[in-house]
Amino acid sequence: MTPITEVEGRRLALSNLEKVLYPATGFTKGEVLHYYATVAEALLPHLRDRPLSFLRYPDGPGGQLFFAKNVPPGTPEWVTTAEVPRAEGPARMVLVQDLASLMWSANLVTEFHTPQWVIQDPEEADRIVFDLDPGAPATVVECCEVALWLRDRLAADGIEAYAKTSGSKGLHLLAAVRGSSSERVTDYAKQLAVEAERTMPRLVLHRMTRSLRPGKVFVDWSQNAARKTTATPYTLRARPEPTVSAPVTWEEVEECGTPEQLEFRAEDVMPRVRDDGDLLAPLFDTGGAGRLP
Q1: Nearest of 225, 231, 115 to residue 172 by alpha carbon
Q2: Half-sphere exposure (CA, 13 Å, Cβ side) for 118?
Q3: What is d(CA 42, CA 274) in angstroms, rounded to the nearest whole number?
Q4: Distance CA 245, CA 237 (A)
Q5: Coil, helix or strand at residue 153
Q6: Which of these, 26, 29, 27, 2, lies nearest to 14 by C-alpha position?
Q7: HSE-up of residue 250 (Cα within 13 Å, Cβ side)
Q8: Which contiguous run of DSSP H or E holds residue 106?
Q9: Peptide bond into 137 cis (omega under 30)
Q10: Which residues, listed in sequence order, are joined to residue 125 by a DSSP beta bridge?
Q11: Are the CB atoms for 17 and 72 separated by under 8 Å?
Q12: What is the mean pLDDT of residues 209-234?
């Protein structure tokens, strides 16, 4: 019998709690739900008001993975949804606005992916993101070198950046911005990626060309496009182990000498949040948002 849990007055059916989703560590679905309940206070602000793309992996990372952007069948009526503009026509998508909606979504077994704008103003980007993706034998260590350059370059334009792990191989940079469309932010991000490649030609690529990737860091600027989404801070990833897209300090980035130093699993992230709060909280300070030059 599927257990029924009440979360903030909402009744949730949480299924298959003993199912092992991460065989490499024995991490179960029940532990996935416990993780999200524990980090909810830090995670929810990053989800709120952003149309959600689900990357579902109901049988674990070794099973089928599929994106779901439209409201899933069986979505409770109390879960907030919104009509979202798309080139192919408007679609209705989920907004995770509260703990009950978060736990309902987590029960689907999903990565959380969100755009760089909020539903109240889809025409204006409020974030800029750089996805630093290393091509072997490069690792997150090389990503850190590129991240530090981008941090300083953004700062020169009055934009303060923050870092998180991708939860996979790389690193993400995020900054709060205002007054620009997604198209304008994308153009600016591409400009900086090209500049980074010119400055560090042996280390950086601004194009995804596979044949050029080995040993270099691809600076993916394209995720700033309005239609694109990026792994949300604190989301679990569909990897062999329950790794998390975890916020990190610039000190951790500067001191990174091995990939293991910036690899965080669910059990690592929970005490970090408990002790330090959300390292990305400054992104919500609208007064601190930068304007593109």
Answers
A1: 231
A2: 14
A3: 10
A4: 7
A5: helix
A6: 2
A7: 12
A8: helix 99-106
A9: yes
A10: 180
A11: no
A12: 94
